[in-house]
Specification:
- The protein has two helices and six strands, in the order ββαβββαβ.
- The protein has helices at 25-38, 73-79, and strands at residues 2-12, 18-22, 45-51, 54-63, 66-70, 86-93.
- The protein has a six-stranded antiparallel β-barrel with strand order 1-2-5-4-3-6.
- The radius of gyration is 12 Å and the shape is globular.
């Protein structure tokens, strides 16, 4: 499965601060449909993610009935993106 969408970068200031992009509802529905086949626990889904020319492996986290994409610091630096920026994301599930 290959998904493409755009979303805004946001920052979570919890005990383990991190940057995320929220997967839109329509794409989250498609992910929910395959999650039982690919999830490794707690609803996390392993993916290959891509923003711009930068690709990395990560896992989507379930949140509020949808999913969020964690964006590593080196990815943000490589693509020169920050909180509030709208980014185009590609997710490859099951690769």
């Amino acid at each position: 499965m290959d998904l493409k969408f755009s979303g805004e970068m946001w920052f979570w200031r919890g005990p383990s601060p991190w940057h995320f992009v929220t997967v839109p509802d329509e794409e989250s529905g498609a992910l929910e449909a395959v999650s039982r086949f690919v999830s490794y626990g707690w609803g996390c889904i392993p993916v290959t993610a891509q923003i711009g020319g930068t690709q990395w492996t990560t896992s989507l986290f379930p949140k509020d009935g949808g999913y969020i994409v964690p964006v590593k610091a080196w990815v943000r630096r490589a693509e020169r993106i920050d909180v509030g920026d709208t980014v185009s994301v590609r997710l490859i599930i099951g690769a």
